[in-house]
Design goal:
The complex is a heterodimer of chains A (189) and B (225). Chain A contains one helix and eleven strands; from the N terminus they run αβββββββββββ. Chain A has 189 residues and is α+β, with helices and mostly antiparallel strands. The longest helix of chain A is centred in the N-terminal third of the chain and has 41 residues, at 2-42. Chain A is elongated and about 85 Å long. Chain B folds into two domains: 1-39; 58-217. In chain B, the strands form three sheets. Chain B has a five-stranded antiparallel sheet with strand order 1-3-10-5-8. Chain B has a three-stranded antiparallel sheet with strand order 9-4-12. Chain B has a two-stranded antiparallel sheet with strand order 6-7. In chain B, a hairpin with a 4-residue loop joins strand 6 and strand 7. The chains are: A alpha+beta (189), B alpha+beta (225). Strand 11 (186-188) of chain A pairs parallel with strand 3 (80-89) of chain B.
Amino acid sequence: MRTRILSRTAAAVAVLLAAGLAVLTPAAASTMAGGVASGVAGGVASGVATGAEAISTGTWMATASVTSMTFTANTDQLSTVSNTGTIALSAISYKVTVSNPASGTPTFTLATCAVAWVSGKCSGGAGTQVGGTLAKNSTTTVTSTQVPPLNGAVYLEVQPAAVTASVTVTLGTSITSPAQLRTGVKTSQ
Amino acid sequence: MSQHIHAKTKSRNKRPTRGILAGLFVASVGLLTTTGVYAALSGAATGSEAVSSGTLNLTLSPDVGVGFSNFTNKMAPGDTDNVFVNLNNTGTLASAAGMTLWVAGTPSNALTNGSATGEGLNVKATQCSVAWTLATGVCSGTTTPILASTQVSAMNTAGTAVSLSNVPALAAATGQVAHVEVTLGLTGTETSTNGVAPSPTVQGLSTTLAYTFTEQQRLGTATNQ
């Protein structure tokens, strides 16, 4: 009996307290709503428009099939220079280093050909000389406008003179953008 | 006798509990009554005011050609890709003078993040008073530069968005259109040696650029009525 009275009384108290809170709550809610509205009114709207464009860049590079040549006689040696990039070239540079032999004063010249050399001839001719005469114990960069086409090659011949002792020529390629690339292309789409 | 004493003790024990419950009951009734009195004493006055808010919409669509799309070729330094787009204020609110642009690349790489110093993609924008001519890329009206060539790496976040200049067609009333040529170019000043690109490099990369144009609403106006 006592337990039942206690339960009923507690329930009644709970109901009354809840009712009291419910009556008070709307006043608190309206205060919060006023704060939110004030924040929006103080903001600044912005309009945004977006667009997307995908882009890929090409590559410009070339390799020489033979990069180090040792000469003990005045016999020409060959290297094939291939375009391994995806951008057409307008020029290519060769860095040529001549070692200092034990004796003698050898010199070298470079010549290029669009087709493979045959018995020292480029389509029956002398090919196109690149740069000047290269002396022993030197490093020289020479530039040629006869370039390997895309997916193609140019044929290089190193021509020695006055070799009396073993001498080494090392050969490297370099391509610098934008000067040694094809002319820029303007696309409108 | 002993039964009587026991009943008396029981009766004494009930008194504090009853007292507490009675107190709580009275407090609850009091709370409710107070609230009711408060409600009863509240005075309310109402008025109504109709209001409609405006809209600020900026749309981007092709002017001539395909607009922003894919550049299918492999770009080389010195190449330019021009696209022609319309920026249209289609909302009901005028925009403030000025507009910003930022360009994000996904993925971010040397084309857009500046890791290859002095290299990467650049963007230029020019407005034409009439629609552009796609075949020639020429404006038959009056051109107005709105963005000088700018490296994407300098404008690749919302925080580094650049301000476009001279955008009168978008600064005034609603419904106006700006015919804009967006020119994308590649700055590349690097040397590949013996078939190897330097590191970092702008060669052989891909990214998708997201151009974001943003206009701000006109200044708020105070109306007294």
